Sequence to fold (340 residues):
Amino acid sequence: MSNPLEQFEIKTFLPLKLGGYDISFSNSALAMTICSLSIVVVFALLLRKRSVVPNLAQSIPEAIYEFIYNLVKSSIGKNGLKYFSFIFCLFLYIACGNVLGLFPYSFTFTSHIAAVGALSVLALLLNISIGIYTRKWGYLRTFLPKGIPYALAPLVVPIETISLLSKPFSLTVRLVANMTVGHIMLKILGGFVVALGIFGFVPLFFQTLIIIFEIFIAVLQAFIYTVLSCIYLGDALRSH
Amino acid sequence: MKKSADINDLQKKIDSFKKKEKANEKSSVSLHLSNSNTTRGFQLVIDFVSGVFIGAAIGYFLDLLFHSAPWILVVFTLLGGAAGVLNIYKATHNQNEELS
Fold:
């Protein structure tokens, strides 16, 4: 049986170095490029014929758009709509990355802590900058919520700081763990199909079910990631 | 007479539409809660563990910086535990707000 962890190995296609840093073009980078390009191409194709009364092709992107629009509006509020484009891109990128990773011979870049972690840290930095930009000094209230006596500040400030810094970590681990577990399970069951010979149809049946479930999980995890990013952004915009 | 009846009809239509809109808004929010309890529990565990982990990591690197091992690590791991509980509180608090 082949190694179920082999699918997560990074293979370098084009070795590149910049100032001592390894910026090689790997299979992960290729998967991200394909993901971004496919989003643009699919959306451009679906929105080719634009009309006031949408046809089926046009209504799919519109439904996704409205879904995320309502999500941003309900979890951040009207003033959060300025950041709608960021949230929309985040959702599409992760959902597309998760789903494309399910195709045979493709690579799931969302199963790597480095890739998702970088995205989460970027989202955190953006949250902090937006918080400081909109609330100025009031943003410091995040670390010492109203109603807490100043005597408790030495205890509360580190706790709130750790809580803030742990957000990208929990976001990352949630998505990465789900993606990794699903892919390992699929690979192991796939190995059973071959190993069991004529009785291979039993694991094949389960694998079919799990693939359907994984497609659902792929979109659901992208959705959860987006919802939590929205909630964190809302926290940065509002005082407690 | 007929005109006022028309306007009343229109008002009724507007009211029913507004009611529908409100119901839709509520259902879109409740989507956040459509996950199963197991998923929810798993998420809360990650929230807690990430607090402890990040606290310990900060403590470890501060110890390296100040050559004071293991004191800052111990203190920050405890603070991380508190931050983990705070994370869980915030996550469930958001949920309760959505429910009410």
Observations:
- Residues 1-34 of chain B form one domain.
